[in-house]
Design brief:
The complex is a heterodimer of chains A (372) and B (203). Helices cover 68% and strands 0% of the residues of chain A. Chain A is mainly alpha-helical and 372 residues long. Chain B is built from eight helices and no strands. Chain B is extended. The chains are: A mainly alpha (372), B mainly alpha (203). At the A-B interface, helix 6, helix 7 and helix 8 of A face helix 2 and helix 3 of B.
Amino acid sequence: MNSGIDLQGTFIRSLIDLGLSPGLAKLLWMPLPMLLMIIGATVGLLVCVWLERKISAGAQQRVGPEYVGPMGTLQPAMDGLKLIFKEDIVPGKADSVLFTLGPILVILPVFVSYLIVPFGQNLLITDVGLGVFLWISLSSIQPIGLLMSGYASNNKYALLGGLRAAAQSISYEIPLALAVLAVVMMSNSLSTIDIVQQQSGYGILGWNIWRQPVGFVIFWIAALAECERLPFDLPEAEEELVAGYQTEYSGIKFALFYIASYVNLVLSGLLVVVLYLGGWESPVPIDWLASLLNVPETNAALQVATASLGILMTLFKTYLFVFLAILLRWTLPRVRIDQLLDLGWKFLLPIGLVNLLITAGLKLSLPFAFGG
Amino acid sequence: MNLAEGVQIVSFIILAAAVVAAALGVVLIPSVVYAAFLLGGVFIGIAGLYLLLNASFVAAAQILIYVGAVNVLILFAIMLVNKREDFRPVKFAWARRGVTAAVCGGLFLLLGTTIITTPWAFSTATPVGDDAVYLIGEHFFSDFLLPFELASVLLLMALIGAIVLARRDFLPESALTASTENLKLPERPRELVAVAKADQPSN
């Protein structure tokens, strides 16, 4: 297996050649991928907001944003600017410390989770051995922020929204974790890189979606519920709770919630792609095409092409899922809270357990296909 | 001392200070809600300490279980049953506090001297790091099988107990006809402020 481009190694080596000490060169490298990932997540968020507005317009036979930038592409940036310049209001009897801390606690884990998202063999911040487990445990911090902002707002709708959000994300974390566990069991590793590696080699036929169709559906439903998207957006159900835990928020603090929810949506899409759709792998394996055309693996042009195609493939598949999520949001009605909890506890949880059991059985009986 | 060690020492100092401060806050702050949120802070700080000890799996499990489940559950319970009532001042509250402080201080001194005087056998083995998952799994199914299974039986009992409590048909009729008063959600009273007057210039 060729390791592709090693940007870190080249960067550090060229700095050492310039006369810097190895420690300093590493120190200079460290912030670069983090900054790049934050910028990437933010751009992904802007694209996502634009898509949401355009697709919702399409679903409702409107035009949507079209004046700011070509086809309204700059509209989300303008939205963001507007929210930044709005007055930042803390309600009179609200608890101002918790009121401010809540949105921060909601947004931080989402951005930190980008640590484990790979766009290529070496194109991720760090290959943590914990991988997806880190994501699951980080995303469990979010409900605390939601509860905090719901409580601090001093508003019954906000409190109800916060409680609902916590209940929802706790109950859907379990089917989510069970679905992930089945994939982890097949790849013998929690690391996102290993999970993608295990799916590579056979193009589209090797992807986990064929081996884990049930797990894929469970994961997708649970991820949508964790993102609080519309079929499951009970925490902020407008008709019942005004806006749930966001009711009292305005300006940049509201924007933090908004950003967190969209970045989380893109993150869920990315993880669906990593876990079930072969990550950066293209439907036709590039190695095979290269060997067909007699291009050696060490060819620089081939490596650049593979890396950029990997990023493109990841993003393409991710936005396919984001598109699906937006379409679901604008076409499906909201479930009731009892239906939501029923779906989570009485349907997804047993199915997830059975899926795990079957995967374990297949892993023992067909080790060549299920990563024995 | 190289860069990594320096970073480790600085983060250890920060984490330890944060954990101690947050833990003191949990005990000393009278507001239950603040105490519960600070408890979450303590758990996260402890997870950071585990990370410094190269036990990343334990750190992630700590966040998932203690912050994501236990602390959220505590907060949930507090917010659902949060009745705003003023507690009557207890007589000799200072005496109780004094006794508690003395007991806690004594315990602290005892444990502190124990820690300092015990000749600790430091392990010289290199930390396993990410392979800890495999090692923990092996131990769970070999020499720690009994505690592992006992814990799972305990959790199963708790699960069944929760289901029995939640299903009303097991409860007697008299328990169901509880009083319907005081079902209001906690919300501090807000008096209406005359906003329009304040805007006018005083001439």
